[in-house]
Amino acid sequence: MTFRATVLTLYPDMFPGPLGMALAGRALQNGTWSLQALNIRDFAEDRHRTVDDTPAGGGAGMVMRADILAKAIDHVSDDRPRLLMSPRGKPLTQHRVRELAAGPGAVLVCGRFEGVDQRVIESRGLEEVSIGDYILSGGEAAAHVVLDAVVRLLPGVMGNALSGDEESFENNLLEHPHYTRPPEWEGQPIPAVLLSGDHGKICAWRRAEAERLTALRRPDLFSRYQPFVGGKKAKPET
């Protein structure tokens, strides 16, 4: 089943952009997923193709109109999740990315200006998604991030299906450090355990490093991490 992505945007020429390159681009060419970028202005009703208006109650900037955006959303109405790229949305997680990758696709709405009329968010069941605690000029860059994260998990996109199993955020851990040739660089050797050939010790080292880095850099993740001890999950010591 092909993963179908539809992006509603004021700048359709921004797509596929980076999604047309590397893993995502090859998967797009191979038909593993499809991408449609629709211009929201095509659903405007006046000759100026107006999609925004002044905010009710006053204030700076402009707000995307509910009636115009709703027409664009209804044009692609189906059972796919409807995601609104929004800094006030729920943070995107690897768990949500995996859920999306397992589904039929998604409709991604890219906001601009000061935001989107709340009424269309509620009436069309838009799921507000944030990629971080910062503000972008518009939702297009965020849509690129969401789709890149999802597409790489589609069957056959990554050369090795196990490549994603130990990545950051899987099992609430950051990823362990990586090394490759040369065995020594600028006086820094590769940790001896990685050259030992003992896969059990290598696995234990990688897990210990992942736990150390997560506890140091992301204590919020580490608090949810449950390591396997004796075949069962146990909470980490703090």
TrEMBL record:
GO terms for cellular component: cytosol. It comes from Tianweitania sediminis. Belongs to the RNA methyltransferase TrmD family. S-adenosyl-L-methionine binds at G111, I131, G132, D133, Y134, I135, L136. Its main location: cytoplasm. The lineage of its organism: Bacteria, Pseudomonadati, Pseudomonadota, Alphaproteobacteria, Hyphomicrobiales. This is tRNA (guanine-N(1)-)-methyltransferase. Its EC number is 2.1.1.228. Keywords: Cytoplasm, Methyltransferase, S-adenosyl-L-methionine, Transferase, tRNA processing. Gene3D superfamilies: 3.40.1280.10, tRNA(m1g37)methyltransferase, domain 2 (1.10.1270.20).
